[in-house]
């Protein structure tokens, strides 16, 4: 201790990175696609249901030792830091909130695309992120602790590039980690190279949704060799994302660990515990999405990795050591 001044900013305040414990870096207590606000005449936000679902999610992750969740819901998809603080206090789980904008196709892009006509949106987004990371969100005093950036399938649009420029600038001011979204298993290496060009610290970045589309790990290696972390972070979501299976994911994780990249792999689910919108919990009853829950790493992945020869210490390395390092590097 002593050499690092780094702290992790949770919704209840700053903690030492050493106190993170097992941490999932990409989950959502609530998520609403832009447009849900416009349908509010037809649906009611049921906070009791949201909290009941959150309580079950927290119980599920605590059963496999998780003590911190990063809620990676961006500003434009129904992020609610007051709710996150309530969940953290009620259910005794450390929660880190996010600043960021989702990719152009599914995010709230029109707002800053309009502003771009008359304002410097990179400067505006940088100011927004730094304010939320250092002072708080919407006057609550509840601060975010990470940033999210996101790109489209097969391209990084001009708008997305502006959001990435802002996050890279805000990281150089605040030191906050960045966790990314990629679409359809594309643009991971392009995101990494752009972030490097913009002065981001690869040790503080997880390129997300790197679960791949086959057993081939060349795609992940390209990102890892640039010093970035890779997220195997849609565990259980195979049906939802037409992704690889969880067994494929585990084989790739072990393969990459054997190649010396144990310290740059991040496991998570990208689970959505509560969807904002009209009868939106109907989603959870769709066939094939029953495995896409925050319990999956405990139920299936940890046993599967142990069966593939990993030790409990290896699991802690993935879920504790790697996450801690996002805050401890200088
Ligand atoms: Zn997500």
Q: Can you describe this structure?
A:
- The two termini are 14 Å apart.
- The chain is an alpha/beta fold and 330 residues long.
- It has eleven helices and eleven strands.
- Strands 6-7-8-9-10-11 form a six-stranded parallel β-sheet. A three-stranded parallel β-sheet has the order 3-4-5.
- A hairpin with a 2-residue loop joins strand 1 (8-10) and strand 2.
- The radius of gyration is 18 Å and the shape is globular.
- It has a single domain (8-328), classed as TIM Barrel (Alpha-Beta Barrel), CATH 3.20.20.140.
- The structure holds zinc ion.
Brief sketch in words of this structure:
The protein is α/β, with parallel strands linked by helices and 330 residues long. The chain is 39% helix and 13% strand.
Features:
330 residues, alpha/beta, TIM Barrel, three-stranded parallel sheet, 11 helices, 13% strand, globular, binds zinc ion
Shape: globular
In which range does the helix fraction lie? Answer: 25-40%
**How many domains?**
1
How many β-strand stretches? 11
Residue runs with pLDDT of under 50 for 5 or more positions: none
CATH architecture term: Alpha-Beta Barrel
Mean pLDDT: 95
CATH topology: TIM Barrel
Secondary structure: elements and pairs:
Blueprint: E1 8-10, E2 13-15, E3 22-27, H1 47-62, E4 66-71, H2 81-91, E5 94-96, E6 98-100, H3 109-115, H4 121-134, E7 146-150, H5 158-174, E8 178-181, H6 188-197, E9 205-207, H7 218-224, E10 229-232, H8 238-241, H9 246-258, E11 265-267, H10 296-307, H11 312-328
Parallel strand pairs: 3-4, 4-5, 6-7, 7-8, 8-9, 9-10, 10-11
Antiparallel strand pairs: 1-2
Helix pairs in contact: 4-5, 9-10
Bound molecules: zinc ion (ZN).
